[in-house]
Amino acid sequence: MAKMTVHDVGFKGKRALLRADFNVPQDAKGNVADDTRIKAVLPTIKHLIDNAARVVIASHLGRPKGKDEKLKMDPVAKRLSELVGKPVAKLNDSIGPDVEKAVSRMKDGEIVMLENLRFYPAEEANEEDFAKKLAFLGDIYVNDAFACSHRAHASIVGVRKYLKAVAGLLMKREIETLSKLLEDPAKPYVAVLGGAKVSDKIGVIENLIDKVTCILIGGGMAYTFLKAQGKGIGNSKLEKEKVDFAGSMLAKAKEKGVEVLLPVDHLIADKLDAKSLIKLESGNIADGWMGVDIGPKTIAAFTAKLRDAKTVIWNGPLGVFEIPKFAEGSRAVAEAMASLKNANTVVGGGDTAAAVEKFGLAQKMSNVSTGGGATLEFLEGKELPGIAALGNR
């Protein structure tokens, strides 16, 4: 990898300012409800501790407007302490004299966690003074927050002006795994694209169409493509302004010899909830009905294409997977990917990652990306600000 990582620098006696993405959900009692993102950074934290660093962790939590008591980092620090097996001192601010004093007293191998960075509007505004005060808390900056690295915030790019910046082990894995999808992927190469909106995937489609063998399209976005083919889609999700793009993309794929599979049957519902009436439809969808999942014929066609794949990227669920009876298409694709041997199977972040976790198949994938928007932008071929800010070897 061209970027510097934690393996390229010494940490003994140094303060490592570690930017993590600990933006995790909480339950009604204010405890961490899903610690997946915390666990993802543990290898980096362990590396820093093992190399006698003084670890200063910075993260945001939620979208606070000012200092929101419900979005303090205390539950995150508590859960991290349990996972890492040693105390994590939670500080009551993220910058300022009290924080500087606490950090100055740290010993090698100790961990402190700063308060929610977004309690300061200056974080998202990337204000230089805030970045400078953050940077004052470290000797080396470690970015392990891939999911936030498409944001040019103070803790992502601003601190780079003052500190040497290196990638953490999670960031390293994300860059290497996603780069393989763009640079020299093994073929057959299948892209599975779903989710609600075509507009979210335009850049990905345009960047991957020269690289993939086959594209499987499901989810809400499929209905804009079916509309472009003149099919009846009833009350299914439609982006009218993207119908022309969908048509031109289908024509471009045909011209390049890239096979595109759209749903040939659908699970349809009269409304979007668990108590809705449902039925299978193999033809045009009538008004008053909407597609909520791919049907069995489509599942068979999609999984058949995956069977021989050597590279698979999946971004976007193929149905409304949060409702169990609308989750079969997503589950079938996840199981097909999980069963592949000697294939690079990558799951895009966000809802797709949540679906794979829900099905208990995350550990059987080559990589489940921690990014949502960051993963999409990387697959579009964009250079993320947080990655650009890392030092080169």
Task: Explain this structure.
There is one protein chain. The chain has 393 residues and is of the alpha/beta class. It contains 14 helices and 15 strands. The strands form three sheets. It has a six-stranded parallel beta sheet with strand order 3-4-2-1-5-6. A six-stranded parallel beta sheet has the order 9-8-7-13-14-15, sandwiched between helices. 48% of the residues are buried. The model has no long low-confidence stretch (mean pLDDT 95).
State the main characteristics.
elongated; 6-stranded parallel sheet; Rossmann fold; 2 domains; 393 residues; 33% helix
What is the global morphology?
A: elongated
Major sheet, described briefly?
A: 6 strands, parallel
Low-pLDDT stretches are none
Please state the CA-atom Rg, rounded to the nearest Å.
23 Å
H/E series = EHEHEHEHHEEHEHEHHEEEEHEHEHEHH
Strand order of the largest sheet: 3-4-2-1-5-6
Beta-sheet strand percentage? 15-25%
Q: Please identify the structural class as seen in this structure.
A: alpha/beta
Question: Could you give the distance between the termini?
Answer: 8 Å
β-strand number: 15
CATH topology of the largest domain: Rossmann fold
CATH class of the largest domain: Alpha Beta
Mean pLDDT, all residues: 95
Would you identify the CATH H-level superfamily of the largest domain?
Answer: Phosphoglycerate kinase, N-terminal domain
Task: Tell me the number of structural domains.
Answer: 2
Which architecture of the largest domain per CATH?
A: 3-Layer(aba) Sandwich
Count of individual helical segments:
14
